[in-house]
Amino acid sequence: MGTSPEASDSNASPAIGPASGGLGEVAALAAPLVLSQILITTMGVVDSAIVGRLGASQLAAVGLAGMWVWAISAFFVGASTAVQTFVAQHHGAGDARRCGAWCWQGLGSIVPLACVAAVILFVAAGPIVEILAPKGDVEPLARGYMRARSLGIIGLTLAVSLSSFFRGIGDARTPFIATLIANALNVVLDFGLVYGWFGFPQLGVVGAGIATAISEWIYAAIVAIAFLRPTIARTFDTRMRLPDLDRVRRLWRVGLPIAGQWVTEMAAFAIFTTFVGRMGEAPMAASHAFIQIMSLSFMQAEGISMATSTLVGRYIGADAPAVVERSYRSSLWLGTGLTAIIALLFVTLPERLIGLFTTDPDVLAHAAPLLTIGAFYQYCDSMAIVSDGALRGAGDTKWPFLMRGGLAWFVMLPLGWFFAFPLDLGLVGAWWGALIAMATLSLLLFARFRSGAWRRIQI
Questions:
Q1: Domain residue limits at 187
Q2: φ and ψ at residue 94, rounded to 5 degrees
Q3: What is the pLDDT at residue 2?
Q4: Sign (positive/negative) of CA torsion 139, 420, 283, 41?
Q5: Is residue 9 part of a domain?
Q6: Average pLDDT, the chain
Q7: Total structural domains within the chain
Q8: Residue 2: inside a domain, yes or no?
Q9: 11 located within any domain
Q10: pLDDT: is 134 or 144 the higher one?
Q11: Is residue 356 assigned to a domain?
Q12: pLDDT band, very low/low/confident/very high, at 270 (cuts 50, 70, 90)
């Protein structure tokens, strides 16, 4: 992607100096992104922590339904992140006034599909949960939570499309402020709607789902207001546009593999969660609490990955491949270094971490051994996530899609099932299968970037 003739001196490429692509630049851009990702994940964690006090059935229901809602949302969220790749490369090439148009292509072609999916999920939540959930107390609770969360899919897709624009121009502060406000509201609404505090109706598990859905829409509203600010409109030409077929095709060529990667991997993980649910309520609740703890740990890698994607796209646009490689190395060091610290907490404080979600002794007994596996799993996951972000910034999205989908479906699920049931290793065995798949993925994605194939990608 070269510099457009319409670029002006005011839109020139960011200056490239000795510190470009260094640890300091990555850390400065990543810090608010890490906080934003942690806050986004905190919505689900808050749901689980508050609902978990109601009992194992309620915690298991939120885990099962929440995983499937996210598996469906992941398609639209993943596709929306392609906006960042195009915006970052245009911005790096000094072509700022073409950045706004790409956000509208995402909004116009992805959000309508999210609307259809949300309606289908709301209507079909009953039969979906009947297939997935074990009979008993979990089934009606999971159905209500799934219906409530489906209302937020559209808002989340809007928010991610708009946030991807801001991340593409290197503005991580705006999405951070939006997620901070949305999370504060989510905490208040969770306590109010789950327990009937502050004059709200007491709705239990359903209340937690409604609280998160409302918060996702608030997140979308805040970034939408920021996107339409006059200063942003003048610099990046963010006036409303109808979908342009050529741009939509280019966006989906990059975004569809990302969407496919997210949804196939999350669907595999949802199936993984479903067969864990067949082990009983306590193992299911334990596995969900474990996933929530890990989600807070790998969100720092997601934030660094987004920063990597922005920097890789920026310096590809500026035709500086050496700085692209330096940005990747710096991101990898930062991501794996932070994850190593978190891994130490997993190994030394397992009972305290699990105790944030439940006091049920049976659930605690199942969950505590998982934290040792989690220490290794999230280290490998961090390496894979950062490598994925670098490849996404270059528009190299097909190979990560094939690698992630193939390993999830043909390694994680078969090995997890084999270790858990034929070898009778139970919950720990299932997670050993997941660890082997993740370790393999991290090495493959690292090798893909180091191969230099991204240099030949044209978006």
A1: 19-452
A2: 80, 25
A3: 40
A4: negative
A5: no
A6: 86
A7: 1
A8: no
A9: no
A10: 144
A11: yes
A12: confident
